[in-house]
Amino acid sequence: MNCDQAFECLTDPELSSGSELRAHLDGCPRCRDMADILEPALRFVTGEASTDWIGSAWDVAPKIADRTSQPFLTEQAVRVAEEAASSLLARNRRRMRARRNRWLAATLLAPVIALALFLSEPKSSQTPPEEAYSPVGPALGPCTRMTAAMTKPAGDADREISAYEVVRACNVCHLLDRPHRADDQEHLKLQPVKATETGGLWQPVAPDKAHASAGISLRWQMAAIALHERAC
Amino acid sequence: MRLDDSEIMQRIVAGDVGLFDELVRRYREPLLRVAWSKLGHREWAEDVVQEAFLAAYSARATYNPEFAFRTWLWTILLNLCRRQWKRRAAQGQALPQSFQADSESEEIREPVSHDSGLAQLLATEQRQQVLQLIARLPEPQGDAIRLRFFAGLKYEEIAAAMESAVSTAKVRVRSGLQSLTKFLQEGEAPPERGAFLDES
Questions:
Q1: Which end of chain B is more exposed for a tag (fewer CB within 10 A), N or C?
Q2: Can you give the pLDDT of all 232 residues of chain A as single tens digits?
Q3: What does pLDDT average to over chain A?
Q4: What residues of B are in contact with residue A82 (Cβ under 8 Å)?
Q5: Is A88's CB within 8 Å of B190's CB?
Q6: Is residue A193 included in any domain, yes or no?
């Protein structure tokens, strides 16, 4: 049951106490609020006072019917009935036409949409293999593979590249090598501390204390350190 | 075998006019309820309902099974009520006075059910309050509420009878109920039975 159907049930004296409506109200705070707001009015218009007249006041109807006034019919009333008939007919035909047009549109558009979907679908030969997205092995891009290999400790050349190494390799190109902006006060940059002596000990330093040779790519600094390690 | 409205109307159009009584039996009571609640006067309501039936009968040739007979009848009734209302308003007879006059009428207070006379009196009093509060609503909202609760129409039928969209019919009912709640919270509620007893 959706909120629209819940409102219909709520305003239907026969369905307003149904379990389905109750279940909807339990799970829908918006409708529950609406039910709370409308409750006094609903009780008022569907209560005993408003329904009793069916069995009470209108019992006197035969008495009213027996009164002296005679049934009457005016030309205008007949015209009202005729206009109502033509208006309802037109409305009904409008609805039928709209429904038919919707069906027609759906029938015509369905093949076009299907064709468009078929054409827009990438061909299997163009789809890259799923393992290409794997972070290990030959699926790695040559650049990343090379950088990761270069940053690996010596002696591990045959070991598969781990995820951590891939991330570190990515960082080398895409984060550390970012041009430094003067206003970027919070930015930290990894710099080698006495790279040649320590063999590549990295620590974050503030931008203002960045390496003097900022023009030199850190990637290649790292690569140089890694190669040095391997050589040792 | 119970014939549906459409079959009855087709047979009436074909010449079996006696079947029209069956339609009168089916719809007279809800039509009277709505007409009375709209006009506030039972005799006017009775006149309008009779006129609606006669008009439908006279225009039976224009009936088409493509639309529901009951929707047609309700449309006729609402339009005739509107016409009656204008005519009465032109004569200076306003709706609240009509309700008041009706509630004071000896005929309407006459105990006619199996309840005691006092219980009937109380029910009538409360009913008058219901009608008065609905009469305070804007006409489209009041009509939508009458058709929904006094006539038991579906929203599709209300929309067709009032020449509106279904969503509009729902919005009218909801807005009308919200306004009624507001009226009731402002202290316009019908008197409690105890309070009414004290007054009497």
A1: N
A2: 888 888 888 888 777 778 888 888 888 888 888 888 888 888 777 765 555 554 444 444 444 444 555 557 788 888 888 898 888 888 888 888 888 898 989 888 888 888 888 888 766 555 555 544 444 544 456 556 666 666 556 555 556 667 777 777 666 666 554 555 555 544 445 454 444 444 545 555 454 554 444 444 556 666 666 666 665 5
A3: 67
A4: 59, 62
A5: no
A6: yes
Read off the tokens for A136.
């290990």
Task: Count CA atoms within 13 Å of residue A166 on its CB side.
Answer: 14
Q: What per-residue confidence (pLDDT) applies to A123?
A: 62
> Residue A161: which region, alpha, beta or left (left: phi > 0; alpha: psi -120 to 50)?
beta
**B185 reaches A (C-beta below 8 A):** yes
A100 falls within a domain:
no
- B111/chain A closest Cα distance in angstroms: 8
Domain final residue pick, A42, A61, A80: A61
d(CA B101, CA B107): 11
Q: What is the pLDDT of residues A105-142, one digit of tens each?
A: 988 888 888 888 888 876 655 555 554 444 454 445 65
Please say whether the beta carbons of A54 and B29 come within 8 A.
Answer: yes
Which residues of B are less than 8 Å from A74 in CB distance? Answer: 51
Residue of B21, B36, B75, B81 to mutate when probing chain A, most A C-beta within 10 A: B75
**A160 in a domain, yes or no?**
yes
A112 is a domain residue = no
Res B76 pLDDT > 90: yes
Among A61, A82, A108, identify where a domain stops.
Answer: A61
Taking each helix axis as running N to C, give the angle between helix B69-90 and helix B5-14, from 0 to 180 degrees, rounded to the nearest 10. 80
The token pair at B125 is: 């009093």
Nearest to A41 among B58, B123, B181 (CB): B181
User: For the whole model, what pTM was predicted?
Assistant: 0.58
Secondary structure class of B127 (helix, strand, coil): helix
- Chain B residue numbers with beta carbons less than 8 Å from the beta carbon of A91 are 67, 160, 163
ipTM over 0.85: no
Which amino acid is it at B80?
L
B106 burial level (CB within 10 Å; 0-12, 13-18, 19+): exposed
CB A52 within 8 A of CB A27: no
Domain count, chain A: 2
Residue B119 near chain A (CB below 8 Å): no
Q: Does B55 touch chain A (CB under 8 A)?
A: yes
Domain range holding A150? 139-231
